[in-house]
Structure formats: structure tokens, C-alpha cells
Task: structure prediction
Amino acid sequence: MAIPIDPNALQWVAMNTRKDPHLDALASLESRLVAAGRDRRPGSPLNAPLVPASNFVLGAGRAYARDDGTPTWEALEEIVGALEGGRTVAFASGMAGAAAVFDQLPAGSQLVIPDDCYQGVAGLAESGRRKGIWSVRRLPADDTGAWIQAATQSDLLWLESPSNPLLVVADLRAICAAPRKPGALLAVDNTFATSLNQRPLDLGADLSFQSATKFIGGHSDLLAGVISVRRDDLYAAVRESRHLQGATPGALESFLAVRGARTMALRLERAQANAMILAERLHAHPGVVRTRYPGLPSHPTHAVARAQLLGYGTIVSFDVRGGAAAADAVCSRVRLIQHATSLGAVESTIERRAGIPGQEHLPPSLLRLSVGIEHVDDLWADLGGALP
Ligand SMILES: *Cc1c(COP(=O)(O)O)cnc(C)c1O
Result:
């Protein structure tokens, strides 16, 4: 499948080659998070300004924001691109970005998504299937052989690793290396890992996706999505989808996402250390039937996680003894931990996932805990005190 791109879209490839060569010299992603997305010309504001513009004075290439972007979106795109090792397109939300990936599929395509998959992405796949645009296969993310086999017959492999909310880790390196049907695309939802723990483009993926609503923003105050690619044709194609579908990020949201990204490494480091300690304590607690965290040696895909991830992330899922009612009771007893959906923020949040439409396959007593940056002793006092 060659991606049929409007020749006009290729202009964006040329327009968006502004890249700070200084960034490549930085050995660490932590430093790139801080240094990227800044205009270094003398007299420029140190931080990318919030530019609430729809249009620009003609004559210098940039005319209309939906077509040509804004300096605020570009700061976010440069930061994420520097982390993922590619070129990034920012969207109004994670789902807007996912829709731009699915938009690359010609009618009659076959797409493959994991059994355990973010419910919005599964819903998007299902809506296209219902309309007869594509067919959908679902495979267990840890069945590497099944994915390798599907790669020769499918047009898009959409992987999510670690997965939401069961935290299954797929062997991305093996699946990316498998021979594919000509033109087939492989995309990885990198939201749970973040680009600090996993760089899908390095592992061989064509597209790396993240909901920037989560760790990049990090403060539960914005919606945004990002797609990173290395290939120029894919960059142009994804930009074209954003332009035609109008799925552009907000100015304030992009500004806040840049602000959030600056501290992402520190937030992740703290939250991840908290998550490991809480996972171990949950694992040992009599009120918990099963703890799912890729960092625990008991986790079914721990070996792949250890080989593939730099860190095990900040999400811990666990099954409470006593079923759905007992799990709901935990959510109503916690005080420091917020009873709320979403994840990847400074504040810890907890939610019973089987209560959500499309998530009926989950154990009824499964709670998904997104661990924040509070002190771990306070978190454990709150959580331990709420368990049955
Ligand atoms: C939140 C999330 C999405 C969707 O992102 P939005 O910003 O909510 O549109 C996709 N994948 C995963 C794993 C997510 O957690």
C-alpha cells in the first residue's frame, strides 16, 4: 500500500524541518525535554509563547493555522519529536491522533488491535468495521507468534504496550521485525510507557502514538495527542489528515503540554518509584487477589518488560478480594487518592474499569491505580487503609 498523498501536503515536510542541531548532541532525553521547543534567536522569549492565532500575515510561508501550524504547537511537536527520535504532529486529543492513523487505511483494509486495548481506540476500530470500511482482528498482545503471522496479511497493526488496563507487554522488537504485507503500517500506542521508557520508532514501528493528555501534560488539565514518525511520506500523510479533519490542538492546551513536558522526567521518576513500592505492598496484601505491574517478577510479561522498557511505568492494576462491591468500596474510602478516570498526572487516581462500556472483559474487581508524585507513605496509608 503506497500512501496516496496530496502533493500539497509535501510542502509541510519542507516547512517543518526547523530543528535545533544542539538537541541531537544531548545524550539524555531528560535534557531534551528541557531544551527542545525553544526559539534561540537573540531577543526571543525563553519559553515558546502562547500564540492564539488562526492566521498570519502572508509572505513568509505560514498562512492559516489549520494548514501550517502555529509556533505553540510546534514547540510541543519539537519536544516530543526530540524524545521519540522522529518528527511529531500534535492533535486536539489522543483520539484525534489515533483517527489520523486509521485514516491512512484504504477501504477494504484489515487492521489488528490487541484484546486489551484502550476502549476509545477499540471503539474507533469497531465503528469503521460497522460501516464496512475495514475488518478488525483482535489478538492477545503477548501472543507474539499470532502478531507475526497477522503481519503478512494485515494493513495496520496497532499495538498498545503496556496495555490499558491489564499492563500486558508486547514483544515489540520481535513483532516490528517480522515480514509484513507490502505497505502495511505498524503503530504503537506508547501512552503507558511514555517516550522516556520506550521509543517505538527505535524498535521498528512506523508510527508512535501518545495521548499527551496523560504523562506529557501531566496535570489533568488538557486534552492533546501526538504522533511521531520518521518517514517523510507518513509525516505528510498524518499532517494532511489533521488538516482535512480539522483535528488541530488548542493553543492553550499546547502551551500547557509544553509546560508539563518540562518536568516529565522528574514526575515519572518519582511516580514510577512510588508505583513499584505500592505494587509490592499490594502483592503482599491479603485483601488483594492479584496485582498486575510489569515490574513485578510475578507479572506474566515481566521478562519482555525487563528487556524492552527502561522503567515499568506508573500504572498498577489489582483485583480486590470480594468482587465489584469490595472494589467500589475501596474507591469510596480513599481520601488522598482521587476517585477519577484518566492517568499520568501528578495526583494519584483510582478507578474500577469493568464498570466502563467496552471493558466488560475485565475482572469485575479490577482497580486501575495511576500513581502520582505524592509521598509513598501517605499513598500507602490511604490505599492500605481502604483495602478489605
Ligand atoms: C487516554 C488514552 C488514549 C486516548 O487519548 P485522549 O487524549 O483521551 O483522546 C489512547 N490510548 C491510551 C492508552 C490512553 O490512555
In short: The first strand starts at residue 87 and ends at 91. The radius of gyration is 21 Å.
